Automatic annotation (TrEMBL):
Involved in chemotaxis. Part of a chemotaxis signal transduction system that modulates chemotaxis in response to various stimuli. Catalyzes the demethylation of specific methylglutamate residues introduced into the chemoreceptors (methyl-accepting chemotaxis proteins or MCP) by CheR. Also mediates the irreversible deamidation of specific glutamine residues to glutamic acid. The gene is cheB. It is found in: Cytoplasm. Residues 151-337 form the CheB-type methylesterase domain. SUPFAM superfamilies: CheY-like, Methylesterase CheB, C-terminal domain. Belongs to the CheB family. It comes from Maritimibacter harenae. Its EC number is 3.1.1.61, 3.5.1.44. This is Protein-glutamate methylesterase/protein-glutamine glutaminase. InterPro entries: CheB-like (IPR008248), CheB_C (IPR035909), CheY-like_superfamily (IPR011006), Sig_transdc_resp-reg_Me-estase (IPR000673), Sig_transdc_resp-reg_receiver (IPR001789).
Length: 350
């Protein structure tokens, strides 16, 4: 029988710790080995209990969750899942925690949704307990005056990117290398709507292109990256005349809303003008849509296993032949920009 995953629960609320312990205790794959109400307690329990994974609150007395996380990722990198409020500072701080090395953020259990929340959290903890955390330091904001040599020349192709667990770090890595006149880009990232709003704001303040949540009817234009707002909506590419965004209030697909497959499949009529990439994430959302896009003439990419926090979605895409190219995260930006750019002939400008 497989050994149960050892979990450390860190939250300043004793009530919340008890609720999380009780919720996770129903799953035989997990064993809560300790609880901590402060960063100091958590640090000592990490040393003595050697847990496989940690749930961490954002706001705690004394040293907050972000400061503790940044120190933890230097001293003893380990998988961490943020369990945070969806409102105000909680959602913004959770996104910053993902950039510091946390692997996923999930909303705190609420009355009427606790069972669904704990089912999702349990699956996350089991899957992520064996993953290798990202320890890259926070990035410096990209200059909007950054020079590219040779200058980027858009070839008219649209870019569509899907991601899930680990996607915050992956998308920050990719977009930090994008110029201010980047190709028109649509993004579907699995995340609760308030977290997506904080994520879009963070990206827009740090990157060269304009990055924001998509609105229904937005026209795709160069230099703009539009992120699915989530909540009730899937993001689709409409192609009646000018290419534009449609937000559709449909049912979940592959267990997700927004769904990567919904976005990819909407681009089939313009597949030959599309470039699509599937990044790190649990499950298989996006793989089927990527395969259909490739069959219809799109350039398609998948993140490789070594650089994926969770090699789920890109693994399925690779196995079914949906990925035209499998690329490490460090090379993904140049690969995508290259697919969306006119190629400069050898010797040009010499």
């Amino acid at each position: 029988m497989k050994k149960a995953c050892r979990v450390l629960v860190v939250d300043d609320s004793s009530t919340m710790r008890k609720l999380i312990r009780h919720g996770l205790g129903r799953d035989p794959r997990l064993r809560v080995v300790g609880e901590a109400g402060t960063a100091r307690q958590a640090r000592e329990l990490v040393k003595t209990l050697e847990p496989d994974i940690m749930t961490l609150d954002v706001e705690m007395p004394g040293m907050d969750g972000l400061e503790f996380l940044s120190r933890l990722m230097i001293a003893r990198p380990m998988p961490v899942v943020m369990v945070s409020s969806l409102t105000g500072r909680g959602s913004d701080a959770a996104i910053r925690a993902l950039s510091l090395g946390a692997m996923e953020c999930i909303e705190k259990p609420r009355f009427g949704t606790a069972q669904e929340t704990f089912s999702q959290l349990a699956d996350l903890l089991v899957t992520l307990s064996a993953a290798k955390p990202s320890t890259r330091p926070g990035r410096s904001p990209a200059s909007r005056e950054r020079e590219y040599d040779p200058p980027f020349q858009w070839n008219g192709r649209f870019l569509l990117i899907g991601a899930s667990t680990g996607g915050v770090d992956a998308l920050e890595t990719i977009f930090s290398a994008f110029p201010n006149d980047a190709p028109p880009t649509l993004v579907t990232q699995h995340m609760p709507a308030p977290f997506l709003a904080s994520f879009a704001e963070r990206l827009n303040s740090n990157m060269c292109p304009n990055i924001r949540l998509a609105s229904d009817g937005d026209v795709l234009t160069q230099g703009n990256i539009l992120i699915a707002p989530g909540g009730r909506y899937h993001l689709r590419l409409s192609h009646d005349g000018a290419a534009q965004v449609t937000l559709w209030e449909g049912p979940k697909r592959n267990g997700h809303r927004p769904s990567v497959d919904e976005m990819f499949l909407s681009a089939l009529p313009v597949a030959q003008r599309s470039v699509a990439a599937l990044l790190t994430g649990m499950g298989r959302d996006g793989a089927a849509g990527l395969l259909q896009l490739r069959s219809a003439g799109a350039r398609t990419f998948a993140q490789d296993a070594a650089s994926s926090i969770v090699y789920g979605m890109p693994r399925v895409a690779t196995e079914i032949g949906a990925a035209g190219e499998v690329v490490p995260l460090a090379q993904m930006a140049s690969a995508l920009l290259g697919a969306c750019a006119y190629q400069v002939p050898m010797g040009a400008g010499a």
